[in-house]
Each structure stands twice: as C-alpha cells, then as structure tokens.
Amino acid sequence: QVQLVESGGGLVQAGGSLRLSCAASGLTGSGYAMGWFRQAPGKERDFVAAITWSSETTYYADSVKGRITISRDNAKNTMYLQMNSLKPEDTAVYYCAATYSSGNYLPRSRYQYNYWGQGTQVTVSS
Q: Strand 58-60 and strand 3-7: pairing?
C-alpha cells in the first residue's frame, strides 16, 4: 500500500521561507517521479514542481521559478520543497504525488500521477 505523508506547512509572513517534506512508503523499486501540486480555495489543483527518480531532471511552474527548489533523498524515501520569498498568492494546500515514470520523462499533469498525499496547508500573510 502506497502512502505519501506531507509535513512542514504552516503560517509564514510574506518574504519568509518554508520547507515541505513528503515521506513515501510502499513504493517498491526505483523509477518513480514525484511532484508537488497546490490548490487554493475555489481553484484547480495546479502543478508546482516535479523531479525524476535520479534527480537529474526537475521542472517548475513559471510562477515559482527562482523561489522554490524541489529535491529528494531516495535513501530516506523523502521529497522536499524549499520555498523562499513566499508571497500571499502561494497560499494553498500543497500535495505531493508520485507515479512510475521511465528515464527522464517528467509528468507535469495531475492526471498523470497515481499516488497522492493528504496535503499540508501553507498560508502566507501579507
């Protein structure tokens, strides 16, 4: 049984930083890509960032480029999202997701991810 558990969310002032973590269990073997998505109230769940198994390839939404860094530690089965220079518009529930993906192909649509966490709230005050 696959389980993804996010942590690290919270309330932060604009310009501040947070680091989200996603602990994965039940994902056997290697070759799965992981990603972060976010959903603000009344809006769609949007792509934020994704990373291949090898960490060789990453991809970011334009809205977060230069402020957010995705990384993973396969030995710990954990993925991270370092968020700096946070803005009020970054306020959302952040979800981690995983899917098996070959080579350096990096899924960017939520429909391509099979496994999801329950989400962690990030609130950025102005």
A: unpaired
Rounded to 5°, the CA angle 84-20-6 comes to 160
Residue 88: strand, helix, or coil: helix
Residue 7, beta-bridge partner list: 21
Tokens of 111: 């429909």
Residue 74 phi, psi dihedral angles, 5° rounding: -65, -30
The model's pLDDT over 2-21, given as tens digits with 9 standing for 90+, comes to 999 999 999 999 999 999 99
- SS3 category, 105: coil
The most distant pair of C-alpha atoms in the chain lies apart, rounded to whole Å, by 43
126 bridge partner residues: none
In the chain, the DSSP E strands lie at 3-7, 10-13, 18-25, 32-39, 45-51, 58-60, 68-73, 78-83, 92-100, 115-116, 120-125
pLDDT of residue 103: 76
Residue 66 has pLDDT above 90, yes or no: yes
Residue 50 identity (one-letter amino acid): A
Please tell me what DSSP assigns to residue 51. Answer: E
